[in-house]
Amino acid sequence: MMLAVPADHPNVFTGLAMVGKFGITASFAVIYVYTAEIFPTVVRQTGIGVSSMFARMGGVLAPIINMLHNHSPATPLIIFGTSPLLGAVLALALPETADRPLPDTLEDAENWDVRSAPILENLEPEEDFSSPDSSSEKQELQHLAS
């Protein structure tokens, strides 16, 4: 099996590894914030704990997957390359949390898509400051403008 990066270009391989490391670090930081937003209040700490446990399981399995390099050099690269892509595709199915209140109960979490975004719908219309309300204000503004 041929690798996408030629062996005589170690800088390209290192650059790709650094880009991958950056992506992993950024996603690891974001996932904790998103996890806290998606779980309802009553199970939030448990949900974050279970999510953290699975993240640590990935850290435990990483050296074992890397040992597959002895069998086939491409196997760890394929596993470590397809896993984040699969995770990114699955993350697209998660609900949007921007401008939405955090779920308080399990029922709120189950009905996440049914609920509307109350912050956007309950906004009061802003006052129109472009035109003065009384004619005396208009006259005063005209006097000041001339």
TrEMBL record:
Stretches for region Disordered: 123-146
Protein's name in the database: Major facilitator superfamily (MFS) profile domain-containing protein
Predominant place of localization: membrane
Topology of this chain in the membrane: Multi-pass membrane protein
Entry keywords, A to Z: Membrane, Transmembrane, Transmembrane helix
Basic and acidic residues biased stretches: 135-146
Domain of life from the UniProt record: Eukaryota
Record-annotated membrane-spanning stretches: 12-34, 46-68, 74-94
Positions of the Major facilitator superfamily (MFS) profile domain: 1-99
Keyword Iron in annotation: no
Cell compartments where the protein resides: Membrane
